[in-house]
């Protein structure tokens, strides 16, 4: 009985040990699994920290590729938006940048910049739309009007979004000259612009775009009306306080509606010699827009000027302003005479009857007959 009891005791004691061993093994396995999980989690956290530290470096290398901050394209492409916050001093300084190397590392198609100086709307815009159509790669447009004027051109118009930051410009005052310099400076920001034409809202083209582009692009000279007028409305407007910077023998008169190449346009916006004298001493009845550009360009670059204007006006009716032409004036005979020309001039040192490319002043009522007869007489 003792043995049995002993054996039974031993058997009972063995039964108690088996569950205890399983619990120990389960605990060890759980601890091992937890350790492995913690190790994996620690490795993931370390990798994430390494990636986070590397990402800014990777991004800093990638960003310039997308933004093209240092690419040539960023320097030579024209501004898609003409609005900017530069004042005139900043604008003229920016426009004065001139490449010193003649050989270009890119393909450049030279364009004509059409610079419209106007108080408000462009009533003859439909005629100009017809003129520009199909020549989008060869021209650019800039408009200077009163700051208070809000243009309403449709998005399909070539004039849409072409207004530059402007200021009030008064006839006969230095502000009108400032407006023209402002137009030139904004156009100079586009390196493709090679020739610059000042126009008003009452101007019309007398030939199609191809004729005008070829005429201007092939000319050796710029078309600025310059002459010495000994009368009271010429030399009589000279102020002796301008001497010796501007002498009376250098004093010239001419039209504000001119065409200049890029070199002369840069000279105009960078002028710090003659402009201050005209601003200080040329005041009504000295009309600065009739004297500043002709005199300054005559002094600096007389060999680059034709001394004639491309824009026709009629002064035969007398008065302080040229004649204005309305609906009744625009006839077959009138347009034929304008387009064919009735004068001779010198073009590239040769005599020609092709002297005028534009005409003014046309009122809004002239639009309908101009559109009706433009294809027959103006070629577009």
Automatic annotation (TrEMBL):
InterPro entries in the cross-refs? BC10-like, Glyco_trans_14
A molecular function (GO) term: glycosyltransferase activity
Among its keywords, does the record have Transferase?
A: yes
Q: List, alphabetically, the GO terms of the cellular component aspect.
A: membrane
- Has the keyword Phosphoprotein been applied to this entry? no
Localization terms from the record: Membrane
Which residue ranges does UniProt annotate as crossing the membrane?
24-46
Q: Pfam families per the record?
A: Branch
Q: Which UniProt keywords apply?
A: Glycoprotein, Glycosyltransferase, Membrane, Transferase, Transmembrane, Transmembrane helix
Q: Which domain of life is it from?
A: Eukaryota
- Give the way it sits in the membrane: Single-pass type II membrane protein
Q: What is this protein called?
A: Core-2/I-branching beta-1,6-N-acetylglucosaminyltransferase family protein
Organism this protein belongs to? Solanum stoloniferum
Recite the lineage of the species. Eukaryota, Viridiplantae, Streptophyta, Embryophyta, Tracheophyta
């Amino acid at each position: 009985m003792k043995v049995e009891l002993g054996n039974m005791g031993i058997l009972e004691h063995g039964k108690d040990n088996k569950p205890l061993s399983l619990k120990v093994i389960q605990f060890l396995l759980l601890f091992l699994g937890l350790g492995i999980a913690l190790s994996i989690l620690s490795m993931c956290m370390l990798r994430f920290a390494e990636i986070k530290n590397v990402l800014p470096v990777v991004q800093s290398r990638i960003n310039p590729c997308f933004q093209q901050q240092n690419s040539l394209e960023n320097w030579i492409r024209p501004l898609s938006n003409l609005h900017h916050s530069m004042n005139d001093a900043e604008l003229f300084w920016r426009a004065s940048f001139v490449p010193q190397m003649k050989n270009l590392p890119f393909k450049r198609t030279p364009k004509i910049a059409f610079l419209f100086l106007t108080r408000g709307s462009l009533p003859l815009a439909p005629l100009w739309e017809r003129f520009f159509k199909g020549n989008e790669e060869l021209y650019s447009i800039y408009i200077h009007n009163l700051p208070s004027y809000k243009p309403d051109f449709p998005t399909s118009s070539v004039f849409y979004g072409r207004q530059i930051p402007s200021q009030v410009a008064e006839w006969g005052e230095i502000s009108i000259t400032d407006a023209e310099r402002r137009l030139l400076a904004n156009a100079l920001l586009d390196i493709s612009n090679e020739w610059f034409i000042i126009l008003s809202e009452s101007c019309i083209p007398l030939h199609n775009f191809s004729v005008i582009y070829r005429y201007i692009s092939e000319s050796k000279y710029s078309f600025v009306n310059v002459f010495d007028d000994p009368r009271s409305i010429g030399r009589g407007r000279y102020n002796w306080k301008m001497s010796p910077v501007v002498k009376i023998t250098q004093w010239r008169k001419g039209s504000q509606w001119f065409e200049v190449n890029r070199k002369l346009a840069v000279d105009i916006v960078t002028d710090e010699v003659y402009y201050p004298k005209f601003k200080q001493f040329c005041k009504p009845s000295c009309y600065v827009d009739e004297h500043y550009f002709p005199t300054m360009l005559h002094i600096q670059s007389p060999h680059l000027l034709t001394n004639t204007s491309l824009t026709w006006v009629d002064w035969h009716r007398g008065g302080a302003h040229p004649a204005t032409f309305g609906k009744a004036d625009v006839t077959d005979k009138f347009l034929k005479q304008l387009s064919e020309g009735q004068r001779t001039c010198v073009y590239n040192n040769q005599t020609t009857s092709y002297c005028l490319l534009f005409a003014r002043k046309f009122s809004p009522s002239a639009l309908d007959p101009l559109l009706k007869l433009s294809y027959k007489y103006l070629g577009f």
